[in-house]
Amino acid sequence: QAALGIAGKVRALEAKEGCKGKGAAVLSAVMATNLPPAHPLREALTSALAPLVTPLDAASSDEDKKEKPRPLSPEAEVLLSLLVLILVIDAKKKEEGCALADTLYERLSAWNRRTLDPFAERLYFYASWAYECAGKLQDMRSKLLAAHRTACLHHNTACQATTLNLLLRNYLHYRLFDQADKLLTKATFPEQASITQTARFLYYNGRISCSL
């Protein structure tokens, strides 16, 4: 519910006159009213958004900063962080995107909550995308392998399917067909995975089969 509340606040701010298309200013305002100064993610998120917020946008969000920050649930915190990461990636801030993704990885590992599984799945996807945009996709491989092992141990179907597909994409990106094939022989794609992930898995599987 808290995560949905954050999404509602973002939509409400975007609906204000003059705020449409100013995602950085909107997220900056939401952070100002929800993340206290001592929050472990406050500095990282603020630094990532700073280059994307114009002086006029910053001035318009000063009113929101007067509100006393309210504590966020882990789900709402990760959702807010994901929105910032997506904005940074869209702005083609490659190194900043990778650094922020690493910070969010560390923050996510501090919790052990099954309610975070859907957000973790999205984080893996966008973190991999950030590294791919930066031309450093190979640096994500060990993290994805660890995430996939954890997802399998926790019977986390969504993360299991997503991380497996991201690993296959990673291997295919560098034409490591043999390693991709070995992964397929050891890993099991969950039958309960979404249609989107199933389609991606079949596509990657077909590419690997045709390349051997």
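(the above was protein one; protein two follows)
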Amino acid sequence: MKPCPWQTVLITTGVVELLLSISYLVDSIFAYDTCYVVPCYEGPGLEELWKINKGVGLSGVFSAVFVIIFSAFSLWLIPRSSLKDAPLMFGFFVGMSFILSLVLIEQMCIWGAEWNLIDNLDKLSDFSSVFSQSGRHMKMRDGLLETVQRMVYMLAGLLLVQVSIVIVLALWHREILADLLWLRGGSYTRVVSMADDVTGVIV
């Protein structure tokens, strides 16, 4: 059966979200516990100050896995939706989109701070004293700044996807219920009242 327009939009956003989150996961794994410079600073405290904190790296990995699970479940749920699942579908997408939006904003702040720090270090001269330790000369790690920048852009894209999902549900909620009712073999005359009922359940 040909998917309804709202299903096509939600499936498309789900696929985009899945691809972005997988890419974000790969970059998060790369950035985990990575030193800003090569070779790494040595010594208690210094080795932790001059690399991406393990907690920051893990937060990126876990948030990426969280989004992957959400997008995968969304792609599984949308084609199987029925009228009795309408409150679940609306509540799931609106609630999870709100939660994920907060997670994504928090991740953007974290990796934005890393971007700012690495960018400032990258602007220093290669002969700056901060890149010397006990006779060893260090340099900024190639590709790290670009990786962090890419992660922030992907987070912004994922946030945009979450906002678009809520907009689709808000604008098309009556059409969605109408399509679900039609798939079940019901009458369109009940759509308006059912839309109000489902909206009331969500609120």
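Reviewer note on protein two: Confidence is low (pLDDT under 50) at residues 182-195, 198-203.
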